[in-house]
Amino acid sequence: MVMKRQKQNIHIYPTYRCNMDCLFCISGGKKRAERMKDLTVTEVIKCLEEAGVGKGSTVIYSGGEPTIYKEIFYTIKRL
Length: 79
Ligand code: SF4
Prior knowledge:
- With about 80 residues, the chain is an alpha+beta fold.
- It is built from 3 helices and 2 strands; from the N terminus they run E-H-H-E-H.
- It has a two-stranded parallel sheet.
């Protein structure tokens, strides 16, 4: 269940892939990225919609390195 509020902080992890391999990575680094598939664009948009993202919401893209997720800008434009 997703509760809708006027202002929200939402963290989304579209990918666990990363161009680095830091020893201290809490995301699991490359090993986790090998096990986890990226979210599809449809899944990202569905998550954001179900979370009720709207004006005043803060959306934080994380991962892995979210900027290597090819569709990141497309999903941001949909906000
Ligand atoms: S997600 Fe961050 S901490 Fe983890 S390997 Fe990439 S840059 Fe390093």
